[in-house]
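hey so u asked for the seq, here:
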Amino acid sequence: MTFSHDALIFSPGDVDLSRSPLAGKVDAETYVLGAFNPGMTRLPNGNLLLMVRVAEALKMPIKDQHIHAIRWTEHSYALDAWPLEHVDTADPRKFMMRGGGWKVMALTSLSWLLPVELNADGTKVEQVHYDKAIAPRTSYQCYGVEDARISKVGDRYLMTTCSVSPERHSTTLYTSADALDWKLQGIVLDHQNKDMLIFEGMIGDTYYAQTRPLGDLYFAYPPGSEWRSGPSINLASSPDALHWKPYDKPGIRPHAKTMATARMGGGAPPILTDEGWLTLWHGVEPMGVVGVYRTYWSILDRDDPSVVLRTCHDPLIEANPALTEPIKDLMYLDNVVFTTGIADAGDLYVVASGEADLGCRITHIPKTAFA
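ran it, structure tokens below
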């Protein structure tokens, strides 16, 4: 598909690390590994806001035969060291601990969230709000705050994030009246339940959300089933956006006939259209270290979002190497586009994505694409 606008709007070179929450608090030189996966919403003034994930990494993580990681503490930021012979460094984003009987990892960066204000159609940066940045502030966030998703429900903005620590890998909720000043409400989903997207509107008097629990074990569908076992997009409901109950019916599941969506998860918070809830989600085709990420879409029933009315099996958005060509020297992944936000702009939608775990991509998609 050809888009009227498709460009990177923010990337590592646009981040001023002298204004980072970590500035002067880490006893080592850092750089921006990626500025990506932005939550997006429309501000009261009509502009768009990106809540950009800034992955701040050590320039020299390996020193004296040890690999180091940044960790938040109550007083500052610490550097932890592990002997190189005890870790696997194949993935540039993380390193895996050898042995132990199960998967244990640490990150090569610590993520914080940077509010970047765009103009109304998302084509220009108006202001970067360093004074409103969100950084770790409690022990369950000591390895970072990642991947914001923002929904406006009524007069409240609700932002889910992934909070990372040895204690748990949890989903946390922030609330705001203006999408700039956020209050941490705490953990709302526990261990490794990622990609939580709160619907932009209630169904009756109930909040709904898409979730994506992860695990190392999945039970097989019977032979001949149209579904493939593995990570799927589940649903949950809540009376207050704080206490969530898993929905009894399944949500969007991988189809057995294709490997392109063998692994899947939520993308942009579902928005209500005349046909039903429009949801953009990601499918991952197994390939290489991390796989090929693409964006797909479905329409869900407005009264029961477990009912999928339509799905397009052709990708809506794919990775575009031309966008990252000017910063190709910073690339460490390819074939990854990860959609994280959508906003109505009249005849089109402004869609925000992370491109190559590196920069923020804005794409204008005509509403006719979903007809």
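The chain has a mean pLDDT of 96. Residues 337 and 355 are 5 Å apart (CA to CA).
lmk if thats what u needed
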